[in-house]
Amino acid sequence: MALSKIDTIDTEMEQVNQEKYLRQATQYYCALEKPLKYGPVIETLPDLITALHREFESNYVNIEMVNHIMLSYKSNPKEWRKYAKFDRYTYTRNLVDAGNGKFNLLILCWGEGHSSSVHDHADSHCFMKMLKGDLREKRYRYPNRPGAIEREQPQDHHAEIDDNELVEIGETPIPLNDVAYINDNLGLHRVENPSHSDTSVSLHLYCPPFDTCSVFQDNCKKTTAKVTFWSKYGVRTKLDEQ
């Protein structure tokens, strides 16, 4: 049965309210270090996807539980191999689940030495779990952003800050099955595969999903970049479908 106009409006309003709540949550959320004691057991990738859909049924998403779900899954290549598509020249973003428009779950594939640019996350949450190999995250202070959460390197807020160049505030390795978390109040980041002999694969959750983000140069010049998918659901995308 087709939705009435009122039902359609209600559905759209619920999604707007959830997006607003999720973006507000970036102002205080900083991540779990280990799974919750009371969270669901996640044994497979389908379990993870089902649990995420269940969490996002509510307007008031429990971000800690989402973090728990990502932490609890243990990588099984047999489950994610069909989504892992590599390109010899650049890392790839491969859509696994579109989350009914409420989140995006992706597998990113990193060839030897591949890296991202320094970028933000459009006021969304970003969870990044290692499925194969290792990655290194370099984090930077977000230029000219009021209210940023400066955990790694406390600043003297009365001192002048030079926003003409990016300021690195931390570098962290991400080993197998670990989960890294970032949002724009925690900073910008650049992710790279430090190995020149092995590939890496990571599982990323973005909520709310976004179509563009900001990319930063060393001199803090900011440009807008379109977010694309190299493949969707294990199938290579055409240029007009990315």
UniProtKB/TrEMBL annotation:
GO terms for biological process: L-cysteine catabolic process; taurine biosynthetic process. Fe cation binds at residues 119, 121, 189. It comes from the Eukaryota. Pathway: Organosulfur biosynthesis; taurine biosynthesis; hypotaurine from L-cysteine: step 1/2. InterPro entries: CDO_1, RmlC-like_jellyroll, RmlC_Cupin_sf. Binds 1 Fe cation per subunit. Keywords: Dioxygenase, Iron, Metal-binding, Oxidoreductase, Thioether bond. There is a cross-link at residues 126-206 (3'-(S-cysteinyl)-tyrosine (Cys-Tyr)). Its cofactor is Fe cation. SUPFAM superfamilies: RmlC-like cupins. It catalyses: L-cysteine + O2 = 3-sulfino-L-alanine + H(+). The keyword Metal-binding applies. GO terms for molecular function: cysteine dioxygenase activity; ferrous iron binding. Its EC number is 1.13.11.20. It holds the Pfam family CDO_I. PANTHER family: CYSTEINE DIOXYGENASE, CYSTEINE DIOXYGENASE TYPE 1. Belongs to the cysteine dioxygenase family. This is Cysteine dioxygenase. It comes from Drosophila albomicans (Fruit fly). The gene is LOC117570530.
